[in-house]
Every structure is written in C-alpha cells, then in structure tokens.
Write a structure and sequence with these properties.
By secondary structure, the protein is an alpha+beta fold. It has a single domain (about 20-135), classed as Transposase IS200-like (Alpha-Beta Plaits, 2-Layer Sandwich). It has five helices and six strands. The strands form two sheets. It has a four-stranded antiparallel β-sheet with strand order 4-5-3-6, covered by helices on one side. Strands 1-2 form a two-stranded antiparallel sheet. Strand 1 and strand 2 form a beta hairpin. Helix 2 (about 40-55) crosses helix 3 (about 80-100). The radius of gyration is 19 Å and the shape is elongated. The two termini are about 35 Å apart.
Length: about 140
C-alpha cells in the first residue's frame, strides 16, 4: 500500500518532511473602505499567486468583496507565515495603488491599501479532540 502522502495531492514532501499546511487568510482594506473593484480583485489574485509562488507556496483559493479578500494558501513548513502575509499585503498594496491609484485615492489615503491587522486560521486535519486522543494513545508506560 502506498504511503498516505502519495494518495493525497494536498500532502507535500520535502527533503526531510511530509506536510499538509493550509491557512485561511483574510485581509481587510484600511478603514474597511470599499475600494476594491472587480478588476482590482482579479489583479490582486494574480499578484498574490505570484507572491505565493515566490515563497514556494500555492494560492489554492481566492475571493473577495469591495472591502476584503479571502485566501486559502498551502505553504511549506520553512515559510514563516508572518513574512508571507507581510509580502502578500505589501506587494499587492504597492502594485494595486500604482496601477489603480486614481481610484484607490478616492477611498484611501496615507499610502496604505490594507489594514495593519489580518485573520489567519489553520485549516484541515482532524478536530482537536481527535488529535488529543491520538496523542494520548501514543504514550508509552515507563
């Protein structure tokens, strides 16, 4: 029988690691202003796919509205999530403001597109109760 990671395309392997790390990210525009248009969201997805690629991560899903975006990212364990987030927000803000500056400036000021905060939630795997039970079962009596 094949190992689980050969049967599941979400499980990736590295030199000394097998992993399945996904994160749900939400970025909100500064002041929660509805500055994003459909064209801007499409361009934002392109930018964020490129940034994820630079980190050897994969943007699995992207969607948004005029004041926020949702991302589902599959990333390797060597990536610091905070650095990925800073790059996603920084690069997309810089390029979207450059390309859509006139429109963005109607809604936002101060050189920032995104709020300083963000949501990050781990995704996938078993519920905590199942993991706790599994770990408990691994204890060896000494």
């Amino acid at each position: 029988m094949s190992p689980r990671w050969e049967l599941n395309p979400d499980i990736s392997t590295g030199r000394q690691v097998v992993y399945d790390l996904h994160v749900h990210l939400v970025f909100v525009t500064k002041y929660r202003r509805g500055a994003l248009t459909g064209a801007m969201l499409a361009r934002c997805e392109e930018i964020m796919r490129q940034v994820c690629g630079d980190f050897e991560a994969e943007l699995g899903e992207f969607n948004g509205e005029d004041d926020h975006v949702h991302l589902l990212v599959h990333y390797p364990p060597k990536v610091q999530l905070s650095k990925l987030v800073n790059s996603l927000k920084g690069v997309s803000s810089r390029l979207l403001r450059k390309e859509y500056g006139t429109h963005v400036n109607q809604y936002l000021w101060g050189g920032r597109l995104w709020s300083g905060s963000y949501f990050a939630g781990s995704v996938g795997g078993a519920p905590i109760s199942v993991l706790r039970a599994y770990i408990e079962d691994q204890k060896h009596p000494f």
